[in-house]
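Appendix B. Chain record.
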Amino acid sequence: MASPGLAKDTGDGPHLVPGPRAVVELLRHAPARVRSVWLDRRREDGELHELARAAGVEVELVDGATLAQRAPQIDCQGVLARARAPVWQDLEDLVDAMLSAPPEDGRRLLVALDGVQDPQNLGAIMRTCEFFGAFGLVWPRDRAVGVTPAVVRASAGASERLALSRVVNLARALETCRDRGVWVLGTVAEGGESLPRLLAEDRLPDPLVVVMGGEHGGLRRLTRARCDLLATIVGRGGVASLNVSAATAATLALLRAEAPGEGRDGSLGTRAEAD
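Structure tokens predicted for this chain:
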């Protein structure tokens, strides 16, 4: 059964995958989704040809102007694929996968975004989430960027491997996670507890949903109300804060570096009720 507030988008629209790395990742991990590949006739790419041949996908050699016309305003570096879009995952399925995974592999994480609108940021966050082994990325359908060619290009192929879930209402989606026993950690530029200190004191449970705020306003009020804990990464330089993609990378690096454990008193404490 689908959770409340989930967007059921089958991803049947046109999906362009620009860039050699992203296209190679798509051919490696989801070759059945690839409908066609266009390659600049001036470019040699033996690996791409081999993967396309194995998938039964024809590679069409075209000129640079044709590629630019098919993917306007995107530097595809001479390679472009047309594919079926990734299927949106159900939030409860992602939570089930996370809860059933062995904790011995490291802290189990799901990442949620609250209104990220810049394609470069979303693509970079996808790459970070995939690199650190997050179980998926969740973000709202409205007032946030979708999986555009620019996002795919910036993700360096992570968009084709990472489990993606778009929800109608992020606050309700976080409440669904909490109902399943998963704690929610919100990240804020200031006013939160020190993330390194929370880790040093073993005060963060496993598994965990990590919520990153949007570029302009950070976490919205209703989102903050669904967080069990708020954490801040305190810098040492003169810049006030990191942008959301850099903050995501720093947060996940810290969380994955520390093995999950119990608190000093043998428990993880008591969750505060959200408003």
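Further analysis of this model is presented in Appendix C.
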